[in-house]
Backbone:
């Protein structure tokens, strides 16, 4: 799996096909989509139209809440694959655990079936807390390859990351730049970025990489799209990492896994 991916939410339509195509041309090799983003068609079109071979691209999509349950999952996946127009998906994630429904274990069994059929290369989860992953593993014996959660310097998820690492699960970060918060205007971040000679966005993405998480930044701006990819030619010192760890507020920009319902 690439060490950084392109976040496609909330880009749709003809503009989406063009932006995703540009992302691939820029050098992004992983595109993160979801049934609920309404842009699988656009992501698939960009992948199919690209001159980069399919085997070099990594396509992720996610199962929406209304499709939890074994049969529903198999049907929903068929829809995703048809919209994408691809033969397989690299990574399929359960978008949210929806504990009130309590169907994520049955959903997971269907995910494992899809992987065994070769339609999905790897299966994982998103927004799963340790208690949810523990249940999957206890009841099916299959550990998710990936857990995609909200993560950025204001909400750095140290306990979740330690848990994932202990299970051999890769943590991916959604809203890696803190989306609507004032993160990118934070003074400490600005100081660190200035010292290193990069933009605040690049410093944050490098912070993710050095923490071992895989960030999925979204940008529609050509300059920022290219900058966000360029985070492997410099590094932050331990002291600079520590200063960025120190700006955590514990505040989320998105939903809580125990409560968030998306259908
Ligand atoms: P834009 O598309 O105009 O670049 P997140 O990935 O955390 O959800 O954040 C995405 C938001 O951050 C978008 O509004 C995006 O706007 C903006 N953004 C993306 N990359 C950068 C960057 N390097 N510097 C500043 N803002 C950025």
Residues:
């Amino acid at each position: 799996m690439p060490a950084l991916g392109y976040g496609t939410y909330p880009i749709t339509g003809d503009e989406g096909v063009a932006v995703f195509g540009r992302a691939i041309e820029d050098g992004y090799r992983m595109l993160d989509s979801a049934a609920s983003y309404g842009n699988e068609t656009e992501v698939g079109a960009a992948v199919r139209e690209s001159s980069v071979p399919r085997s070099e691209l990594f396509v992720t999509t996610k199962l929406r809440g209304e499709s939890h349950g074994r049969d529903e999952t198999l049907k929903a996946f068929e829809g995703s694959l048809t919209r994408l127009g691809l033969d397989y998906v690299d990574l399929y994630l359960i978008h949210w655990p929806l504990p009130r429904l309590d169907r994520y274990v049955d959903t997971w069994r269907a995910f494992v079936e899809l992987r065994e059929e070769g339609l999905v290369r790897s299966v994982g989860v998103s927004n799963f807390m340790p208690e949810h992953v523990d249940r999957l593993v206890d009841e099916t014996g299959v550990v998710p390859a990936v857990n995609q959660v909200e993560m950025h310097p204001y909400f750095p998820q140290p306990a979740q990351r330690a848990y994932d690492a202990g299970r051999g699960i890769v943590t991916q970060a959604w809203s890696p730049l803190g989306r609507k918060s004032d993160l990118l205007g934070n003074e400490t971040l600005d100081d660190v970025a200035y010292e290193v000679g990069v933009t605040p966005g690049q410093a944050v993405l490098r912070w993710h990489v050095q923490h071992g998480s895989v960030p999925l930044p979204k940008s529609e701006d050509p300059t920022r799209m290219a900058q966000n990819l360029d985070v492997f030619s410099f590094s932050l010192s331990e002291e600079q990492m520590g200063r960025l760890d120190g700006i955590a507020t514990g505040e989320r920009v998105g939903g809580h896994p125990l409560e968030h319902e998306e259908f």
About this structure: The longest strand covers residues 120-126.
